């Protein structure tokens, strides 16, 4: 990943044949990016028309396309954006994975749909885990931890308890590592660890990116997108 951009984007190296980015606060996108109306679901849409609108994609939290030059993206402000590129079958995907989508294993369902639509093999995929809230900042209630446990996640890898919560801070209490949870989902699906890029950027701590926890739910959103070139 190139973290020394002169523009207000993070650019990810996913190899020849595709380009992938995440915007920052105040950034204007350089071209049209198709996004869905995200609702924290596990629904995956096939984008086969470059003129599709957000209204056309009501309720979809992952978008997949094989159209050259057609950018698909997700909008986030603490949730985890995932970008996938299949250089063999020539297809890309953008996935919105907050804690609810992660519990629903939306990225694995996206990979399964790519296999059905294009013949994608997970072992060929290049994956990006973009900026999102980190474990230190993602303090949650015990009921959220229970959802992950019931869904079969390896709690020893993604959860910790830091003692009594401190009012007005993210210290103490239960913490979930959404980066680690999505890394585990990708690897369990068959994506090779060497082909997974982790941005490591915490949106709550880094003010170059919007954060619903820091700014409030009505804040702006960053966009992570990918397209075939």
Structural description of this entry:
With 229 residues, this protein is α+β, with helices and mostly antiparallel strands. The chain has one domain (9-132, 186-228): 4-Layer Sandwich (CNF1/YfiH-like putative cysteine hydrolases), CATH 3.60.140. Helices cover 21% and strands 27% of the residues. The chain has six helices and 14 strands. It has helices spanning 99-103, 106-118, 142-150, 155-158, 178-189, 212-215, and strands at residues 9-12, 18-23, 33-35, 44-46, 62-65, 71-76, 80-86, 91-97, 126-129, 139-140, 159-161, 174-176, 196-198, 222-228. The chain has a six-stranded mixed beta sheet. It has a five-stranded mixed beta sheet with strand order 1-2-14-6-3, with no helix packed on it. The chain is globular.
Topology:
Layout: E1 9-12, E2 18-23, E3 33-35, E4 44-46, E5 62-65, E6 71-76, E7 80-86, E8 91-97, H1 99-103, H2 106-118, E9 126-129, E10 139-140, H3 142-150, H4 155-158, E11 159-161, E12 174-176, H5 178-189, E13 196-198, H6 212-215, E14 222-228
Parallel strand pairs: 3-6, 4-5, 9-13
Antiparallel strand pairs: 1-2, 2-14, 5-8, 6-14, 7-8, 7-9, 10-12, 11-12
Class of secondary structure makeup:
alpha+beta
Number of domains: 1
Query: For the residues shown, what is the average pLDDT?
Result: 95
- Our measurement of the CA-to-CA distance between the termini, rounded to an integer number of angstroms, reads 18 Å
Order of helices and strands: EEEEEEEEHHEEHHEEHEHE
Query: What is the CATH topology descriptor?
Result: CNF1/YfiH-like putative cysteine hydrolases
Helix tally equals 6
Question: What is the name of the CATH superfamily?
Answer: CNF1/YfiH-like putative cysteine hydrolases
